[in-house]
Amino acid sequence: MFEHRQYRWPQPLKGSRPRIWYGGDYNPDQWPEEVWSEDVRLMGEAGVNIVSLGIFSWDRIEPREGEFDFGWLDKVIGMLGRAGIAVDLASATASPPLWLTQKHPEVLLRDQEGHTVWPGARQHWRPTSPVFRDYALKLCRALAEHYKGNPYVVAWHVGNEYGCHNRFDYSDDAMHAFQEWCRQRYGTPQAVNEAWGAAFWSQEITDFSQIIPPRYVGVQGSFTNPSKMLDFKRFCSDALKAFYSAERDELSRITPDIPLTTNFMVSVNSSVLDYDDWGDEVDFVSNDHYFLPGEAHLDEMAYSASLVDGIARKRPWFLMENSTSAVNWRPINYRKEPGQLIRDAMVHLGMGADAICFFQWRQSRAGAEKFHSAMLPHSGENSQVFRDVCELGDDLNKLADAGILETRLKKSEVAIVFDYESEWATENLATPTQQVCHATEPLDWFRAFADHGVTADMVPIRGPWDEYDTVVLPSVYLLSEKNSQRLREYVKGGGKVIVTCYSGISDEHDHIWLGGYPGSIGDVVGVRSEEFVPMGDDDGTLDHLELTNGTVARDIADHITDVAPSAKVLASYKAGEYTGLDGVPAITLNGFGSGLAAYVGCRLGREGLSQTLPELLGQMNVPYVKGQDTGSILRVERGATQDGKDTCFVFYFNRDSKPAAAAISGVPVVTSHASVDAGRKNALLEPNGVVVTKE
Ligand code: GAL
Q1: Based on the domain organization, do 543 and 590 belong to the same domain?
Q2: Is residue 626 part of a domain?
Q3: What tens digit of pLDDT does each residue of 635-673 get?
């Protein structure tokens, strides 16, 4: 178990009051110097008080090997600082200069099929290359030596989104590092064989040198060993973490007073690294989040922000990047609708962020991201985006003045457990169905609770989920002996848990728990399933199952054959005679110790879960589900108790695509795309509207 690094937050510039940090990535090196003073003037208008600088500037800082040019950077930092704008300074290692890769092509990444990943984009380096590490650390040293004592640098931005483009490297450097990682983890070749189930397909090693990364194994259908694949993902997260830590330690050795972070990428369905593990390694957690276009936009954002808050263990966190409008990297890059720029920022803020930043300050004229939105768009200051950016700056100042920085996201009654390793394991290709994975199930549960006015906390599996009244384990596929035991103790001691199908299937090596599913916690949930029932839409196959509670299961169901005497069946399947599933239990509730364990043995989707929750939670004596009519407003609370007085900021968001009413309390501080009546009791929120009150 790692200890968390001590929490440290970037401090305001001398003479400035603590504010919500507000700004974005700033790339002045893409612009002639005349533009810089206009940038600083407009940043002032918008209320910007911090920028992330130099993220991709290695070749400008070190134009030739060992020759450093800080002149331009000094000038920009001075201009910003004198205008009251602080700097989150990058270690600048995200994109190496061409002189480096020309001289040392051996630092370039190799893909699964052995192709070289050439310069041309960014992050094309191997985290395990000792040569690359040397150059990167030299740069860190030079930067830290030059900027130590600079009054305007308030944080280090180490690297950038590690693993975004270089998560998987299959080079020989990676191979040697993977061998060493396995030696550290397992000690002997026999233990590796055991962990990987290597007796299967003659894969046993007798020496660590026989371990190769999961390189190309042939056409589709030639599956890589899933236990090895899971370890490779762990290794890749660790290899990047080791690289990051080396940079961090170099910087903090020279500038011990400057807090450090690196920007995570927490959002649904894209867990490149084990961010909960990385959370131990930063002084403050920061995240980049890009909206999911479509009807799940708000919910997914709240879900991801809640998970970041869980990773930060409810300490303040930093939204390092989001977009003012469209991104440039999807097939169709939808713009943000009116209201969304401010609303989205308020979602992160409500969920515990004390900093709101964007990629990027000024929209590029050239390069791969010229169609990516920015705070200052191509059209200039006379634009809706810039007006919204200025309005947001004002709103953040009002909230800071009202005291929001003293408050934290309030703990919910419900924890939904998230597990990076279960997401990685369920991505495997040789599974009962590709439709079920840990990535999407937690979001369905978060949304179903929100449909009933409950904003759940997303809590990483290493986190304190067992301190909540009610816990959901949504397809937490991997459960180690230790975590199974933790769940057992929690329920025994009076906890209430809802476990869903495809949980507790395998141990941490992805070896199946035997005896029927869910093998490791069968006693807790009081059911035993003998076989999965995957569903699809191939001609004539079973594509859905109706339940007696009126919901419909799709994608997967368990064939539950045994129910313990202590358990009762809450719903079962209504299926055709010859399916063997008619009357088979679908949802059950077991008394275990002093607690209760419900089991939802099929995939009901957000809608089915939402329909199921009132009855299920009623049976579990969970009182706080407020009924479906509360579902159009997402309510988030940040609170604090000071000198015996409770302060609370309540955020109201409209989840509907039509106007929605909210009964509010307290004094409105921020109102966007919404109106509040004279008595301050009712608000009417347009779609994408938000109201924040202080109680
Ligand atoms: C992030 C990255 C930024 C920018 C942005 C565009 O992944 O850190 O540099 O590329 O995406 O959405």
Answers
A1: yes
A2: no
A3: 999 999 888 889 999 999 999 999 999 999 999 999 999
